[in-house]
Amino acid sequence: MEKAVASDIHVLGLFPDEKNTASAIEAMEEHPWKIDRVNSPFPSHKIFDALKLKKSPIGWITLAGGILGFVTGFSLAVYTGLEWKLVVWGKPVLAWFPFVIVGFEFTILFSVFANVLGLVFLGNMPDFKGLELYDPRCSGEHFGILVSCEQQDQEKVVEFFKNRGGEVTIFD
Amino acid sequence: MNQTPELTYSEIDRTVLDTLRPPSGGYWLLIMVLILGVLAGAACWAYQIYIGIGAGGQNIPVAWGTYLINFVFWVGIAHSGTLISAILYLFRAGWRNPIARAAETMTVFAVSIAGLFPFIHLGRVWLVYYMLPYPNQRYLWPNFQSPLVFDVVAISTYLTVSSLFWYTGLIPDLAAVRDRATGLRKKIFTILSLGWTGKHEQWRHYTRGYLFFAALATPLVVSVHSVVSWDFALSVVPGWHSTIFAPYFVAGAIHSGLAMVLTLMIPMRRILHYERIVTMEILEAVAKTIIFTGLIVGYAYGIEYFLAWYSNNPIEQEAFRWRAVGDYSLEFWIMVVCNSLVPLLLFFKKIRTSIPWLFGISILINIGMWYERFVIIAGSVAHDFIPHAWGLYRPSGIEYGIMLGSFSLFFLLFLLFVKHLPSISMTEMKETLDHGESGGI
C-alpha cells in the first residue's frame, strides 16, 4: 500500500458500506495515490484483506510482558520467603508450588499491562491531531478512505470516489 | 447467529445514544435513595472503626461473618461479566454482544465492592498496607504461601485487568459519543476516547490486542475464584477442607453472576428501550446457561454429602448432618432450593421466555447464592471439631447496614453508568450485523 507520493492534498471518500469501501481500496492499487488511512465504525475483515494488512505484532509484546510478569511474581515470592523465613517442622523455606500461583497472577497482570501499552503505542494513541482529517460519521455508519495526492490529481481522485458511490471531502 | 436482522448501524447508534439524554426526575430520585443507602453503610463502617471490630457479630468460633460472605458474594457476581465478555468472545457466541458491556461493567463495580470488604473486616483499616510486599526496617514480608496473600494478588490483578478490559472495549464507543456531542461533553469524550478515529492501523492492533485480552482474562477468572475457594479449602475445617472447592466456587460464581446479569438487564432493556437489541433469545440463552451452572452447583452440593459419607470421617459426617438439620438448616434449604431446584424451572420454554419468571428466578438465585456463602463460611466453623467450641453467629445491625451500603453502592454505580456511558457496545453490535462480519486478523 505504501506509495511514494507528495501529499499536498488530502481527499476523503466516504462510503455507506464496507463492501464498496473494500472494492475502492482494491481498485486504488492501480493508481499512484497513497491511502493514508481507512476509518471504519468496526473492525472489518474485508477492509483488512483489501489493504493486505499483516498481523499485529502486539502478541509478542504481550508475551514479553507475561514472561517478565512470571519472573517478577515468582522472584518476589522467593525473595520474600528468604528474607522472612517461616520454618515449619523443618520443611523447606521455599514452597515452589504456591509460588507458581503468585507467578501466574503476575503473568496475567504484566501481560495485560504490556498488551495495553502495545495497543497505545502501536495504535498511535492518544492521537488528537488525527481528528483534523476525519469525518465524525466514520464512527457511526460510514467508512472513510483518506487519500493523499498531488494537486493536479485532485480531480481524478474525486471522480474515482464518486464513480464508486462515495461522498467526497477535500482537506487542504 | 444473527440476533437483529432488521437493525441498521444508525439505528444501533440512535438506540444506544438516546439512553445518554438527560434523565427524568424518577432517575434522580432513585439516585438519591441509593446515595442514602451508601451513606447509611458508610456511617455503619465509621461507627465500627470508632467502636472496634466487635461492633459486628463475629465471634469465636465464627470469626468470618458477613464481611467475608459479602466479599465472596461480590467476587462471584463479578465472574459472569468476564465469562460473557471474555470466554464467550473466544467461543464466538454472538448472543454475548448485546449484554457484554453491561456484564463487564457489573464485573468492575462488583470487584471494587468486593475489594472493600477485606478493608472493612480488618477493623483497623489504616493498617491495610501490611498486606502489601514493601521493604521495611523489620524485614517483615507477606507470606506468599498463604491463600490469603494469593487472594490479595489475585483480586488486585482481577480488578486491574477487568477495568482495563472494560475501558479498552469502551474506546471506540466513547469516540462515537464524542462525534455526536457538543461543548464540554465533546471535550471530555475526546480525551476519554484518546483521539480514536477507527483508522485501520488502530483496528489492526485493537482486534488482536482484544483477542489476547480475552485469552488472558479467561484463565484469570478461573484462577481468581479458585484462589478465593482456597481461602477455605486449604484449612482443615470440616466443610471447608475439600478438593472440589475450586470448580465448585467457580461454577457458583458464574451461576450468581448470570443471575445478576438478568436482574440488571431485564429492567434496563425495558427502561432504556433495548428490546430490539437485547432480545428474548438473548435472555433465553442466559437462562439456558443458568440451567447448566445450576446443575453443576446442585451436583457439588450432592457430592459434598457423598464425600462426607465415603470418607467415613465422623467429624465431616456430623458437619454435613448438622448443615441440613442444625441451627442453619433454614439457610441451607434456602440455598439448595434457590440455587439447584428453582433454576430447573428454566427447562420449560414458557418459563424461560417469560420476563416476570426470569426476573423472579434471577432474584431467588441471588438470594440463594448469598446464603450459600453464609452456610459455607459461617456454618462450617460454627460446628467443627470440638463440641465445647461450637458457637452460633448472627449478623449485627452494623453488618446489615454495611451490606445495605454495598448493594446501594453497586446499583448506584450501575445507574450512573447507564446514563453516562454507552451501556451496549455499538461497535460489537455493528459487527454482528450481516453486512459486518466480526473477527480479528
Can you give the helix content of chain B as a percent range? Answer: over 70%
- The top-level CATH class of the largest domain in chain A is Alpha Beta
Shape of chain B: globular
> Uncertain runs of chain A with pLDDT below 50, 5 residues or more?
1-5
Mean pLDDT of chain A: 90
Instruction: Report the major sheet of chain B.
Output: none
The fold-level CATH name of the largest domain in chain A is: Alpha-Beta Plaits
CATH architecture of the largest domain in chain A: 2-Layer Sandwich
Strand tally of chain B, please? 0
The average pLDDT value of chain B, as a whole number, equals 92
Number of helices of chain B: 15
Distance between the termini of chain B: 20 Å
Query: Which term fits the overall shape of chain A?
Result: rod-shaped
- Alpha-beta classification of chain A: alpha+beta
How are the elements arranged and paired?
The complex is a heterodimer of chains A (172) and B (441).
Chain A: E1 9-15, H1 18-27, E2 34-39, H2 45-51, H3 58-83, H4 96-122, E3 143-149, H5 154-163, E4 167-171
Antiparallel strand pairs in A: 1-3, 1-4, 2-3
Helix pairs in contact in A: 1-2, 3-4
Chain B: H1 9-18, H2 25-51, H3 66-90, H4 97-122, H5 147-179, H6 183-192, H7 200-233, H8 245-271, H9 280-311, H10 314-325, H11 329-341, H12 349-352, H13 355-382, H14 397-420, H15 426-432
Overview of the structural elements:
The complex is a heterodimer of chains A (172) and B (441). Chain A is α+β, with helices and mostly antiparallel strands and 172 residues long. Chain A has 2 domains: 9-55 and 127-171, 2-Layer Sandwich (Alpha-Beta Plaits), CATH 3.30.70; 58-122, no CATH class. In chain A, 47% of the residues lie in helices and 15% in strands. A 4-stranded antiparallel beta sheet of chain A has the order 2-3-1-4. Chain A is rod-shaped, with a radius of gyration of 25 Å. Chain B is mainly α. Chain B has one domain (14-133, 151-432): Formate dehydrogenase/DMSO reductase fold (Up-down Bundle), CATH 1.20.1630.10. The radius of gyration of chain B is 23 Å and the shape is globular. The model of chain B is unreliable at 435-441 (pLDDT under 50). The chains are: A alpha+beta (172), B mainly alpha (441). Chains A and B meet through strand 2, helix 2, helix 3 and helix 4 of A and helix 1, helix 5, helix 7 and helix 15 of B.
